[in-house]
Amino acid sequence: MQISSKLPNVGITIFTKMSKMALEYGAINLSQGFPDFDVAPDLIDRVHHYMKSGMNQYAPMPGVPALREAIANKTEQCYGYKPNVDTEITVTCGAIEAIHSSISALVSAGEEVIIMDPAYDAYQPIIELQGAKAVRVPLTSAYAINWQSVAEAVTPQTKMILINSPHNPSGAIISEEDLAALEEITAGTEILVLSDEVYEHIVFDGEMHQSVFKSEKLRKRCVVTASFGKTFHATGWRMGYLIAPEVLTTEIRKVHQFNTFTIHTPTQYALADYLQNPATYEAVAKMYQQKRDYFLKAMKPSKFKPIPSNGTYFQLMDYSAISDKGDIEFAEWLTKEVGVAAIPTSVFYADGRDNKVLRFCFAKHEDTLKAAAEKLCAL
User: Fold this and answer.
1) What's the domain range around 288?
2) Same domain as 230, residue 97
3) Cα(191)–Cα(124) distance, rounded to whole angstroms?
4) Is the peptide bond before 65 cis (omega within 30 degrees of 0)?
5) Taking the complete model, does pTM exceed 0.90, yes or no?
6) pLDDT by residue (tens digit) across 99-147?
7) φ, ψ of residue 260 in degrees (nearest 5)
8) Angle CA(42)–CA(43)–CA(47) in degrees, nearest 5?
9) What is the mean pLDDT of residues 169-193?
10) Beta-bridge partners for 92
11) Which residues in 263-277 are b (16+ Cβ under 10 Å) and which e?
């Protein structure tokens, strides 16, 4: 059978590959971004409660009203803007479905989407599935956005600019000045903005997450995607949502309804209850900062050089003082021979740029981080 692939250059993701290798070689898995500690017991209890209460059938396609109301209240508390519960909030199967449905609904063949380089590996394939083109703009050496380069990349075909803060893989965050620059570039145009804010509650060192919701001009043209899985360390639940103006939401829901249609009902009710206490998400940054700092301290005797992480639960490490192997080869060697799995960052670049940098996930128990650091410090 002859199949004409829509994604001929795409294989199994590096995350699947490295997690599989970690399991095969018994390595400590600091590669794929998932926590190894439990979800809060009271949140699990709420899910169980609603399962036993009979909330096990289809939820409304946009999401359970109580959860959408809770999301609206949280957004107002965090960013001073309350989206319309009925017309602007949609509960999705993780943030990736929110991103996929948004791009599918709003971007057409022949159009262009500007993304930053390095970028999360899902963005470009989703864009290409629409027959559109991903235009990649390199970040600076400090993983900041070069807005002059973004402005120069805009063409009459530009339909969307996609930003991600806190940024995966680097942990860099955008500033108020970044939002102002994005406002200026998009002013007077029909360009949409897709803001991937899945790590919104994991920002460190007293910094504040600069959501596009803080900009009245941007939120009129923006889709924001978010993740309960990241915030409440329940990545396997695949619970996310998107917020967008009604004119955009209407189109996105057309795709969403024929994609997943609706999302796990008892978990939606449970999250609606859980969000009533803002401490459930406000405490997340402190917890992860402690883990980041613990990992950095444990790694201090090593020859790895840390690159500052201002958010997410990832830490980049330069290994150039240890080996001249390419980062994919070194990551595989590290998994097989040392017993620690990490992600090579070249996979996030369009040109496979090899900076001799690996990404480590520190969303782990301290015992896990300690054991990994001991192995890495021995190099």
Assistant:
1) 14-32+283-377
2) yes
3) 18
4) no
5) yes
6) 999 999 999 999 999 999 999 999 999 999 999 999 999 999 999 999 9
7) -105, -15
8) 115
9) 97
10) 240
11) bbbbbbbbbbbbbee
